[in-house]
Task: structure prediction
Amino acid sequence: MAEHWDAVVIGGGPAGLMAAGEIARAGHRCLVLEAKPSMARKLLMAGKSGLNLTKDEPLEAFLDHYGQARGDLEPMIRAFGPIEVQRWAQDLGRELFTGSTGRVFPREMKASPLLRAWLRELQDAGVEQRLRWRWQGWRDGNLLFETPDGVQEIAAKAVVLAMGGASWARLGSDGRWAGYLQDQGIPLAPFKASNAGLLANWSVHMTPQFGKPLKGVAWHAGDLTSRGEAVISSHGLEGGGIYSICAAVREGAALTADLLPDLALTEVQKRLSRPRGKASLANHLRKSLKLEGARLALLQEFGRPLPKEEAGLAALIKALPVKHAGLRPLDEAISTAGGVPWAELDTSLMLQKIRGCFCAGEMIDWEAPTGGYLLTACLATGRWAGQGAARFLAQHGA
Result:
């Protein structure tokens, strides 16, 4: 016998929990089901490095970071953008602060206090939460789950799917849901790595640089530019500066690094023309341009043999081709592009081919850089889908 619920939310991450809250506050019985042993594991992992909730910047500039998906996401983020995210976290009792780059963090710099408060709030609103319930698709119109007590069926008048993308499978986003939607005739965009590091086949000369940060570098790929920091790892390049341009690299754009972005090409050439005397080239670069450490190592790695004439060397410093071996594997990406195309959803995020079934978060085909944009859109789409489900239930007598 199947259990009966007004609404079931599948996936206990930020998008799913936000949807559940909207449904419950509208007066409907709501059940959240999570495949893993605890809720929001990916959020907790993100919180280990500070939990960047959002970015405090003008909304138009904020929206520009969603690229091709801006038009689809815009109404949702205008309804629940950076200001609203901050107010929501504060209402959960979290004190926030804004860093020098505009990134907003909880004062305690971790996710667990916010998550605990959020889950308590949802419980008080009447949301029931169950763990280790893994979705197995549909059977005769009912939702099918693998659970600690065997296979279970649930009949729900509305469903919100919020199971994430296809990266960090051990935290719950394994993309296994894709086959169940395809079985229902829903075409999906292929999963692609987003916010991923780059692989590099370093020479032995780079070994002393492993773990060193690359600061003061501008990264260029296609139409994308980033001034974010990167880190040299044994595998390649990691960090926000790389993640921000990885979408263009993934699509085949060449990657270059401007090692002196605050100096014009002519000024670099002018400084290189200063008398060198008996100084080595490395010392000349250090004294004339303050180019040393990790940046100098990168120049030597990708630029050798270095041009002898000042004009050629200056041009290389300003646009150093970064040789790499592609992005790190899909499962190691922070997020993924691909999933449910916008064309398969109506304006409330309901699947056009499955009445009463909504999608939210990374399941939908959009991507955004880290820095608060990714989490904000997950929260915003979850809220939007939850409100859509609540309206659907109100219209159909639940």
In short: The first strand starts at residue 3 and ends at 10. The chain has a mean pLDDT of 96.
